[in-house]
Amino acid sequence: MKPTEPANAATDAVEPALFSPIALRSVELANRIVYSPMGQYMADRTGAATDWHKIHLGMMALSGAGLIFTEASAVAPLGRDAPTSLGLWTDAHEEALAGVIETCRRYAPAKHAIQLWHAGRKGSMDIPWHGWRQLPEEEGGWPQTAPSPIAFPGRTNRLTVPTAGELDKIAGQFAQSVKRAARIGYDLLEIHCAHGYLLHSFLSPVSNRREDEYGGSLENRMRFPLQVVAAARAAWPAERPMGVRVSATDWIEGGWSLDETLAFCARLKALGCDYVTASSGGSDPGQKIALYPGYQVDFAAEIRRATGLATMAVGLITEPGHADYVVRSGKADMVALGRGLLRDPRWPWTAADALGGSITHPDQYLRGGGRTVWRYSSALKR
Q1: Which domain holds residue 87?
Q2: CA 376/CA 372 separation, integer angstroms
Q3: In this structure, is residue 382 part of a structural domain?
């Protein structure tokens, strides 16, 4: 299925759907705007959060978005994609992130989520503003983990291909990080199973050529990702929602397909997942993607239709009317902005003014104006 651009992204609804609340298990989000988990590469060299995360996530929490994602956090040292990627595998990591989230909650009522991942065969990179090049082991890099001895194109670091027992250990690492996230008090958990990283690399025939029970058939290729999701759901509090980010297609011949995604999502639902974030690509730089605003929205719509799961739409959605259309038309339940909110952390206020919605607004910023915002001074903890 190739996504199609909406015929009309303008909204004529009396009440904008984008600003309606949504409940996922015991968690209610004030609106459907989500800040995506955008990597900051500002952890210290151990992987612990720093003051940057307080400033950055605090700014996003003040934006009025209903849900704020902490960037993808690795479950093990070999699961990072760069030396200053965020981690959540030690007590020190947990303590640092707990301080960040406590500060955010003190000043804004937004709900908070965390995405957990393992970078797999796309790990060991230098940070983006240093050129985003592979970091060799002699320069402080590390081996990359892959389902098969097939490197991501252009990478030359050693590959480690985990045995069944080693896969059990990685699933356990996910579960331990999930428990840490629960203790920190995150409202929602997401497992990263997209973009060619470890879990997606097991799903995709592009990277998984195993001949054991973890490769070959769709059932076998799904086995390890489903094992991780099951371990995560068991470790996560039953009353809190959990989701998975998927790549709906690899965008290459012979790669992971939408039909396989639908089968995978049905299994995710059976394991207790509450929503899916529908992204795409990442398995191979030869992918052929037609980029336009909302180019991935129809993936979210098809997953929602076929499985009944709530979905989160992502991908070049920048206009308030378009974001409202996505929710109002039933194509997705939430809209996540990454680059758009990095460019304009007050995007939700602008959208509220444009669409006539109500949104949280700090008392301290009231002199900035705005027609449709309301105050939440009772949320402040002085």
Answers
A1: 17-373
A2: 13
A3: no
- 165-202 confidence digits (pLDDT tens): 999 999 999 999 999 999 999 999 999 999 999 999 99
265 and 305 Cβ atoms separated by less than 8 Å? no
Amino acid letter for position 72: A
User: Which ranges in the chain belong to alpha helices (H)?
Assistant: 51-61, 91-107, 164-184, 198-203, 218-235, 258-270, 297-307, 320-328, 339-343, 347-355
pTM over 0.85: yes
Q: How far apart are CA 129 and CA 46, in angstroms?
A: 20
> What is the C-alpha to C-alpha distance for residues 75 and 327, in angstroms, rounded to an integer?
33
Q: What CA–CA distance (Å, rounded) separates 238 from 100? A: 24
Bridge partners (DSSP) listed for residue 112: 68
Cβ neighbour number for residue 201 with a 10 Å cutoff: 31
Residue 10 lies in a domain: no
Annotated catalytic residues are: 197
Domain of 225, CATH number, reads 3.20.20.70
Residue 35: strand pairing partners: 68, 337
Note whether residue 8 is domain-resident: no
In a domain, 381, yes or no: no
Q: What is the pLDDT of residue 207?
A: 97
Mean pLDDT of 371-378: 50
Tokens 């974001």, located at residue: 323
For 193, the 3-state DSSP assignment is strand
Mean pLDDT of the chain: 93
Query: How many separate domains does the chain show?
Result: 1
